[in-house]
Amino acid sequence: MPDVQAIIQAMLAAASAPETGEKPREKMPAIAISRDYGSGGDEIARLLADRLHLKLYDAEMIERVATRIGTDPQTVRQLDEGIGRVREMWLTRLFSGQDLSPDTYKRHLVDVILSLGRAGGVLLGRGSHVVLSTSTALRVRITGSPEVCAKRVAATESLTYDEALEKIREVNHNRGKFVWELFGVRTSDATNFDIVVNTDRLIDFNQAAVMLEHAYHAIGGLNEKADVSA
């Protein structure tokens, strides 16, 4: 298997290099958020983006990948939801002429994430924490126990507790499988993140957003010092 990190580093270096005569851009760290279903990660990402006046990228990542490949977002979502469905993608390629192989999807996804990461937005999911691991991005994992997450999902989606528990297990499994099959990284490995937040004891998700806002500014300050000393 190719060295994923080496490939990402090479792409990041190429994307970061200013063209001849171009003034260096001001460096604004991006934020890459990975989350468990029911942990409040989506809401925390939105609150954090609002506090920092940054754009939140979620579905737009799929739309940009679709544009690059030359297909529709729904087709890309099939890859996004099950990268291992090789037979279905092979048939789509056969009849449409579009290259929807996992390698093609990964290449365009990495390109999109690197591009958005340079803009300094909040990127939600899709292995963005792996792609931006060699940059100045703040990498965040938002998690929670299955029991607490199931109670939240049951309350917000009008499900029974058992139905909610089954749903979060399925969603979390699929998300973890997606990152593993694309990048060979486990979402459960805390060493791939700068901060891991367990929301089990949080009543107000704003508390997590405030904490991450402080961490974001701390990361930015460290980057500025590093630039000065370089």
List the helices and strands and how they pair.
Blueprint: H1 4-16, E1 31-35, H2 41-52, E2 56-57, H3 59-69, H4 73-81, H5 86-96, H6 102-119, E3 122-124, H7 128-131, E4 138-143, H8 146-157, H9 161-183, E5 195-198, H10 206-229
Parallel strand pairs: 1-3, 1-4, 2-3, 4-5
Keywords: Kinase, Transferase
GO molecular function, one term: kinase activity
InterPro entries: P-loop_NTPase
Verbal overview:
- The chain has 230 residues and is an alpha/beta fold.
- It has a single domain, classed as Rossmann fold, CATH 3.40.50.300.
- It is built from ten helices and five strands, in the order αβαβααααβαβααβα.
- It has helices at 4-16, 41-52, 59-69, 73-81, 86-96, 102-119, 128-131, 146-157, 161-183, 206-229; strands at residues 31-35, 56-57, 122-124, 138-143, 195-198.
- It has a five-stranded parallel sheet with strand order 2-3-1-4-5, sandwiched between helices.
- Helix 3 crosses helix 4 (73-81), helix 3 crosses helix 6 (102-119) and helix 8 (146-157) crosses helix 9.
- The longest helix is centred in the last third of the chain and has 24 residues, at 206-229.
- The protein is globular.
- The chain starts with a helix and ends with a helix.
- The model is unreliable at 14-26 and 224-230 (pLDDT under 50).
